[in-house]
Amino acid sequence: MKQLHKQSSANHRRDEEIPAAPTSPYSPKTLKHPRSLPRSINYLFKEQRLLFILVGILIGSTFFILQPTLSHLGPSESNSAIPRHVTTGVTTTHDQIASYSKSNFGPGKTGRIPVGIGNRRLRIVVTGGAGFVGSHLVDKLIARGNDVIVIDNFFTGRKDNVVHHFGNPRFELIRHDVVEPILLEVDQIYHLACPASPVHYKFNPVKTIKTNVMGTLNMLGLAKRIGARFLLTSTSEVYGDPLEHPQKETYWGNVNPIGERSCYDEGKRTAETLAMDYHRGADVEVRIARIFNTYGPRMCLDDGRVVSNFVAQAIRKQPLTVYGDGKQTRSFQYVSDLVNGLVALMEGEHVGPFNLGNPGEFTMLELAEVVKETIDPAATIDFRPNTADDPHKRKPDISKAKELLNWEPKISLREGLPLMVSDFQNRILNEDEGKGLK
Fold this sequence. Notes:
The structure is a single chain. The protein is of the alpha/beta class. Helix content is 43%, strand content 12%. It has helices spanning 2-17, 39-45, 49-71, 75-78, 93-105, 132-143, 198-203, 205-226, 262-282, 306-315, 335-347, 364-374, 399-405, 413-434, and strands at residues 123-127, 147-152, 171-175, 188-191, 229-235, 286-291, 294-295, 320-323, 329-331, 333-334, 354-356, 361-363, 381-384. The chain has a domain at 121-296 and 333-360 and 390-411: 3-Layer(aba) Sandwich (Rossmann fold), CATH 3.40.50. It has 14 helices and 13 strands. It is elongated, with a radius of gyration of 37 Å. The N and C termini lie far apart (144 Å). A 7-stranded parallel β-sheet has the order 3-2-1-4-5-6-11, with helices on both faces. The protein has a two-stranded parallel sheet with strand order 7-10. It comes from Ziziphus jujuba. InterPro entries: NAD(P)-bd_dom, NAD(P)-bd_dom_sf, UXS-like. Belongs to the NAD(P)-dependent epimerase/dehydratase family. UDP-glucuronic acid decarboxylase subfamily. Its cofactor is NAD(+).
């Protein structure tokens, strides 16, 4: 034990004799080698990051330098197939810019119009676009250079009416019933979908009113969702059997709410109500047209409307069917006049409603005489009992459309009827050949 104690004491003395290492006056952090460049600059130079940044800046600068020059190039300079100014028959693309600015920024507000809005063509959907009026509207919109989407369930519409557009990259055809919702991205909606002749809308009256109500509701919902302008094709039938003659837009009508024609008459009145409620409550841009009797090529041969009935019967050498005493009156406009009125209304700044019709008034007997003169002077007339709720008089007052839309019909009945007759003769001939008739 003494020996161990001496050894530990000796070790302790040796430890005391070893001098302590001098302490550095600096902190250990300062012993690290200082960087030659700040960390951020060193980061940029690694893996060629600076090169990528410079290339991005160069590309962005080039776009902003060249973009004003390209936007001022004419059609020939830019080798573009799209004309710089598209003639609409009503407005030019400069008016579309003004409309866009007004609708998106409001009065007293300023905003930048997106690049290229003045040069882009509109994307337009036409419900019922394979029908009689719809197909003629599609022709006009395509001719203007617009992209057109046709929605039709082919209840009364026919593919033959739009087959000449098949293969056109600016035309699309969708088989769809507007009673079911659909999602699209468009600028304008022309809502024409609904059977318009008594034979067709009486065939399934519940379906007719569903088309007027649910179809219109779905299209208005689409217009609200995507900010599109919406045009409703209503009808002179909203006036019912009118007590006012001629009918102005301020007239509320005389309609039987429970009659055989109510599915169409009241359906269209409800559609107008929906359009105005969406306009007032959801700020949807709407336009309402009240269409009077229209005729022309592509009408259904046997749709029950008086002009198509008379023309088809005269060509087939059948008696002309007149219901009642033949003294009830109608006004007839040619389809191209109506199409021009619809486009004028859509491109204008007025909601409506607007009467679109020809104020020239004919009794049924007078119309029968015009058809006989045009087709077959030897044709006879077959009188039958009148149908329920058939209006006695129908004539539009179009002074509002003349003043605010600068529109009025140009083609008289005697000028337009031969064009329709030529189309009917070809179709009836083909129909008879298909049945093996001579």
